[in-house]
Design goal:
By secondary structure, the protein is an alpha/beta fold. 31% of the residues lie in helices and 22% in strands. It has three domains: 189 residues, P-loop containing nucleotide triphosphate hydrolases (Rossmann fold, 3-Layer(aba) Sandwich), CATH 3.40.50; 152 residues, Rossmann fold (3-Layer(aba) Sandwich); 74 residues, 2-Layer Sandwich (Alpha-Beta Plaits), CATH 3.30.70. It has a seven-stranded parallel β-sheet with strand order 3-4-2-5-6-1-7. A seven-stranded parallel β-sheet has the order 10-11-9-12-13-8-14, with helices on both faces. β3, α5 and β4 form a beta-alpha-beta unit.
């Protein structure tokens, strides 16, 4: 079996999509590449596969640098890179955690460094990493990094790489401007943004009153037990929405920039594994986070600009799947220019048919106090839950493995019993604590 086949098997992928195949053909032969492809189309794997093929197994230097616009995306890319099981050392750096800990980890140089622009620039300034042998720079969602104010740091990083040969930029936006400081000369474009017809439906839900909280509850009861994201513009209004949903017994997770990094990560973990079907979020969730295919997204607030509206909508109807974008709006409020009222269905909230929402989630997330640094693998955890936890195949869900812990989705009906059996059990000779992750 080829190394490529082994990687795809580890990732449980039967075949690459057309965009990934073209990237694999183009990237090894071109030094300047711009990859344009929709959110959720698999850009991470598209650039990681050719990257790992290009690395020297005998080198002890940092060979490649991947810059991400957010901590969440940096964490996700690192997770995919690790799950590929290539044998290359990978390190992750980002703001919001101790610099000194990262510096210690970097004493043994990784082959690939993944991080946010601000923290990577900080490590370069403080010389905690040798960048003299880096030959490949990948700027993932590079326009987003520029949009949130990282141009100075990105310029600093590019100028600090004396042996840089290959530059790869990715984006989910059609009209991107490649800044001069990036140094791309006659880049080769891989453009899949126009590939295939979108299966996104759009519906306007009209609220009879300006304060739309009760209309939101009605809309969510109309949608029933589907998975989706409710977008708010500000964290303060998000909290108000969250409190109201809690009062009405509608389970959900929250995701916004004011949360601690650990809380944000755990919200996404629960949303990904089905422990929470609903995520209430700011535009931090509009792009660059790894979430499953969604049935809907709902704009509780409309964003101020059209491109933000497009990125939010890109969370559903991905990769030829169907999905619906709902806009909840006061009936006297005019629609912005970026929504064509002729192309959308308009429904009054009072006309919505209501469905039941199951107050009990199908899955619960269990926390396990052991991870990669303890030499524990996903297979070890699955074995523990099947053998000692006595779970059937359909009762064990997604396993997310971190450096020092793991998060495991199990059928809600089995969670309490499994915790009783597994708390203080041994995995790889290490005793682990197992508990239900609180919301």
């Amino acid at each position: 079996m080829s190394s490529m086949s082994k990687i795809l098997k580890k990732l449980n992928i039967s075949e690459l999509n057309a965009m990934q195949k073209e990237a694999l053909d183009v990237m090894p032969n071109e030094n300047n590449v711009v990859l344009l492809s929709p959110t959720g189309s698999g850009k991470t794997l598209a650039f990681l596969l050719p990257l790992f093929e290009s690395l020297d197994k005998e080198s002890n230097d940092v060979q490649a640098l991947i810059i991400e616009p957010s901590r969440e995306l940096a964490i996700q890319v690192e997770q995919v890179a690790r799950e590929m099981g290539t044998g290359f050392k990978i390190n992750l750096v980002y703001g919001g955690r101790p610099f000194s800990k990262e510096k210690m980890q970097l004493k043994h140089a990784p082959s690939v460094l993944i991080g946010t622009a601000g923290r990577v620039a900080d490590h370069i300034r403080r010389e905690s990493i040798d960048v003299s042998k880096i030959h490949t720079l990948i700027l993932d969602e590079f326009d987003k990094s520029l949009e949130i104010g990282f141009e100075d740091e990105m310029t600093e990083i590019v100028e600090a790489l004396p042996e840089l040969k290959k530059r790869i930029l990715t984006s989910a936006t059609q009209k991107v401007q490649v800044q001069r400081f990036l140094g791309l000369k006659s880049p080769k474009y891989i453009n899949f943004l126009m590939d295939g017809d979108s299966k996104l439906k759009m519906k306007i839900i009209q609220s009879p009153v300006k304060d739309k909280l009760d209309s939101l509850v009605t809309t969510l009861y109309h949608l029933g037990d589907q998975s989706g994201i409710v977008f708010c513009n500000f964290k303060d209004s998000l909290k108000r929405v969250s409190d109201h949903l809690e009062e009405h017994g509608i389970a959900h997770a929250c995701f916004h920039g004011g949360m601690e990094q650990k809380e944000r990560e755990r919200s996404l973990i629960q949303f990904r594994n089905g422990s929470q079907r609903l995520l209430v979020a700011t535009d931090l969730a509009a792009r660059g986070i790894d979430v499953p295919a969604l049935n809907f997204i709902l704009h509780y607030h409309l964003p101020p600009r059209g491109h933000e509206f497009i990125h939010r909508n890109g969370r559903t109807a991905r990769m030829h799947k169907e999905g619906t974008a709902y806009v909840l709006i006061w009936e006297e409020e005019p629609l912005p220019d970026f929504i064509d009222s002729k192309e959308v269905e308009i429904i009054k909230v009072g006309a919505l048919e209501l469905n039941a929402i199951n107050p009990t989630q199908d899955w619960l997330t269990l926390f396990v106090s052991g991870g990669r640094k303890d030499k524990i693998s996903k297979g070890d955890i699955a074995g523990l839950f099947f053998k000692q936890g006595k779970l059937e195949k359909g009762q064990l869900g997604n396993i997310e493995l971190k450096d020092d812990c793991a998060f495991v989705a199990v059928a809600s009906s089995e969670a309490e019993r499994v915790v009783g059996l597994l708390d203080n059990a041994r995995v790889k000779k290490r005793k682990v604590r197992v508990r239900v992750l609180e919301d």
